[in-house]
Specification:
A hairpin with a 5-residue loop joins β4 and β5. It is globular and about 35 Å long. The protein is about 25% helix and about 40% strand. It has a 5-stranded antiparallel sheet. The protein is an alpha+beta fold. The longest helix is centred in the C-terminal third of the chain and has 14 residues. It is built from 3 helices and 5 strands.
Length: about 140
């Protein structure tokens, strides 16, 4: 189900709780909502649809990927960039890393690890920041 986008910075600044298998319907809603906003958005975190759980989705080429309870385990190549956000108006400067390794669970709650670079790494960092209550 496509859910409304949350714009309240006070809500978005709250840290998200770990997701459990009971939160799997949130994954479906988050993917549906991302697909409805593909013209303006390449990633979303669950708090952007009003659910404070550590779930992110993002575009990976023509597909959408899911990470449950993601955490960055290593990062390198810090740089400064500008980003926008579907939940917040405008563009802001922020620091990101060119290469990150992320530990996460997939939709079957199997533990996974992936290494990401460039724009994909930037998207994932932005969405994990959402989970941590960090607004750009």
């Amino acid at each position: 189900m496509i859910r409304p986008i949350v714009h309240d910075p006070l809500f978005l600044a709250l840290k998200s709780e770990p997701a459990t298998e009971a939160d799997l319907p949130v994954v479906t809603d988050l993917l549906d909502t991302l697909r409805a906003h593909l013209d303006a958005c390449v990633g979303m975190a669950a708090n952007m649809i009003g659910v404070r759980r550590r779930i992110i989705v993002f575009c990976s080429g023509p597909m959408q990927a899911v990470m449950i309870n993601p955490r960055i385990t290593s990062a390198s190549g810090e740089y400064e960039t500008e980003e926008g956000c579907l939940s917040l108006a405008g563009v802001r400067g922020t620091k990101r890393f060119r290469r990150i390794t992320v530990a996460f669970q997939d939709q079957a709650f199997r533990q996974r690890t992936g290494t990401y670079e460039g724009f994909m790494a930037q998207i994932i960092q932005h969405e994990i920041d959402h989970c941590d209550g960090i607004l750009i």
